[in-house]
Amino acid sequence: MMAKRTFFLSFSVFAALSLFSGQRLSAQSMSLEKDAPLTIYRNAHIYTNDPGVPWAAAMLVRGEVILAVGDEDEVTALSEKGTHIVDLDGRFVMPGFNDAHVHLGEAGYDALTVRLQGAPTIQELQKRLAAAVAGSKEGEWITGSGWDHTLWPDKKFPTRADLDKVAPENPVFLVHISGHVAVANTLALKLAGVTAKTQSPAGSEIEHDASGEPDGMLKEDAMGLVRAKIPPPTAEHRRKGIELVLADVAANGVTSVQDNSAWEDFLVYRELKKEGKLTARITEWLHFAEPLEKLEAQRRDGGTTDPWLRTGALKFVSDGALGSRTAAMIAPYSDDPKNTGLLAMEPEKLTAMAIERDKAGFQLNFHAIGDRANRVALDAFEAVAKANGPRDRRDRIEHAQIVAMSDIPRFAKLQVIASMQPSHQTTDMRWAESRVGPDRIKGAYAWATMQKYGVRLAFGTDYDVEVISPFRGLYACVTRELPDGGPQGGWQPQEKISLAACIRAYTTGSAYAEFSEGKKGELRAGELADFIVLSDDLTQIKPAQYTKVKVLQTVVGGRTVYSAHQQ
Fold it and tell me: What is the distance of C-alpha 49 from the center of its chain?
């Protein structure tokens, strides 16, 4: 397993030890705090994620940075008086996961509202809503999220009438699991001024019943008509929710996240960081459609270099979701022949704005689920490079769920990162082919084909659309099966990838996507001490066991932020 006497250093204090094989020096080492405590993690089974030295038995950490990884005797020899020794009892250790796509602020808000995930029928949704009504005052807003009509026997969207039955005196707004459609009750629509005469905002839809009245279903930006009337969360409420989700993140072995939330949420993260209570590294995306001057001001304010909290790419949601049939498709949906989905912005305008923001030095990050949305995004990135010339952009497409096969090589040619969420495939495989048919499905969740063409992958979960656990994603990568197993051999099995490749996409791939390669994603000298201790060796168990693996300890910057023994 582990080659003897192979380890590497990066701290100049140990320059005299350069006679050992495998030493690597890093400029990062010069910034280490010489007075920071030393810790040796020994008697470990360390999966380094470094192809050069894949396994180790011990790791030496000073402050936030790894000094050495390798043979236990050699690493222990580097200790000083007062070095803290942690015996890991032979446990499996690996780099912490870097979730390349989350919504922490929304997850925090949702954690304190009606939770509708997994509701198997509209009746169960009504039951949970009724419980919320019982605990609310008349007239108070009730919000919730996570309902999934594809789990229901009739697979139909709910209506305002369904909500009115149990909540006639409270305005209600419930968001679909995709986050791209929502249902509101009659009182909520009334307070928002949504009537039969209300025009749908561009790139969205207000659904109507047979009589021409709004039926409660709002798609894409139409949701904003009602959202605008919901009282914003208080600062206390916002922080409480964020603290809950950060605890969830740590408990699931995620040490870094790339987040799409409101600026007010970023300010909460900054407050937590100042208090020493931030438990994950956060790169915060800014909102592409905001005025350029505002984006530049936020970039200056939030910074771009702090390893714990900084601003990053500009995010734009260019289409909807496959489950709600709002993802923008080149040809109509196979199960809805009159529908091609929705584009949020005209391609010409999107391209012009992309060129302007790229010229200002921003990384661009477009949500694109349907094949048309993916093509429009690629076209925009190609136009940007032509207009502004070559540079290391690392532009990204988030989700890249349904891609025309002819467009996959363009990702590699344009050096566009495919930021994908494997657990979406596990959720969507029950109905995805009915949406797009047997031909287009070949370009769906196509991790192996992306790899074949040399496309860089960055993996995440889209939390809280999906649970934050990366182990569910590992299971999807390797099996392409439902959570309880099947179909035999996996769904579209040609797109399976190996465990090692999936781990890389969840670690080094995600680090590259945020310009952090060489700083995190591997356990080697000079990189940040972000790692997790697991109950099982992922490389030795069957894929069906991945989701049963327990996180025993999560360490970020040398600090334990989660311990199963303390829960």
Answer: 20
